[in-house]
Amino acid sequence: MRRAADRIDAVTPPERNRAVDALRAFAILGVVLGHWLVTALVADGGALHTASPLQHMPWLAPISWAFQTLAVFFLVGGHVATRGYISARARGTTYGEWLTSRLSRLFKPVAAVLALWTVAATALLLTGAEFETVRTLVRLALSPMWFLLVFSALTAVTPLLLRLHPLWPLAIVLHVDIVRFGLGGPDWLGWVNLAAGWLVPYTLGAAWTRGELEGRRVGWVLFGGGAVATAVLVGWAGYPASMVGVPGAQASNLNPPTLAAVTFGLAQCGLALLLRDRLRGGMRRPVAWAAVAFVNLSAMTIFLWHQTALMATTATGLVLGRLPGLHTVPDSLGWVAARLAWLPVFVLVLAVCRSAFRSLEQGPRRGGGRPSRVIRVHRRTDRVATEEARRA
């Protein structure tokens, strides 16, 4: 494994900003672990319904602060997209070619998820499964799609966002919440924030590309200002403490995004900027860089299939009865301990999904050209590891 890590490190272009890849990997893994920790499928008779430990133990809300990392992903996405578009334009690549290349890497893995769950849902209904159970499973499996739709829309308008200041979408979020919560406006108005809310970290990424986020002062301002604003909104303005949706709750910070979710995201982005230099140093270690490269090469596959891994484990476990941390009501620390024990199983099932579907994400790029050197070495490393395991 050490030799494999050294090979991946050696073929990585020296100009690559490894801190960006590290932030993307941490953001994806944060979302995956967060979902696995706060999503429960409770067996009730012959049906399954969703629940969350945050329903029964609201004092665990700080867990959501650590694992709701989407703002960091949009920060990195905005930075990579704007930098890539500027580079493509300098090479003479058209907007259509650039956008097709970007979106194909996002949506090719989606086809497999949709196909599998179409077949699975049909089979479950034909074999007598309750409609509510099937709907619950499908909704969980397809829940990551909203993220891809929003991210794709922002990617498509990247040329218009190259110079947009993050204060503009932040002002929209502020006014929407004032009208919605302060003046009794309609609830549907909150969905304006689905675009405006995630535009804030995305345009911060564009500012990063423009060189406006250099220096630690900017990071401290974002981190400190975002943290203080979030504390005020939660402590005195009545916003929920949880940064993820909680089944049965009257309000959610995430569905659609609220001002508290956006200010919390600003704090996360500030922390990410403060950690850039340390991450660059840490990524000089071949083993650490190989792990980050591994996650990045399959980022969309991991993101799209992690809920399926949880549900596959839950469904299979029903054969053995109602298992703690898997099918029971998440209302105690015993459930939390049991769920932590299930995490390695979820990882194993997700690894199977990744092995089956990663080729859809790691296929040829740039008009059918050869994959990158990192991808080629990564694939060769997999084969070498398998051969060495067989010999052992």
Structure, described:
It is built from 18 helices and two strands. It is mostly helical and 392 residues long. The chain is globular and about 60 Å long. The chain starts with a helix and ends with a helix.
Q: Mind sketching the topology for me?
A:
Blueprint: H1 2-11, H2 18-38, E1 40-44, E2 47-51, H3 53-56, H4 62-67, H5 70-91, H6 95-126, H7 131-142, H8 145-156, H9 158-161, H10 167-182, H11 193-209, H12 216-236, H13 259-274, H14 276-282, H15 286-297, H16 299-317, H17 333-357, H18 373-391
Antiparallel strand pairs: 1-2
Give the tags.
single chain, 392 residues, 18 helices
Low-confidence stretches: 364-371, 375-379, 384-392
Put simply, the count of helices is: 18
Radius of gyration using CA atoms only: 22 Å
N- to C-terminal distance = 14 Å
Label the overall shape: globular
- Largest beta sheet: strand ordering: 1-2
How would you sum up this structure in a few lines?
This protein is an all-alpha fold and 392 residues long. The chain is built from 18 helices and two strands.
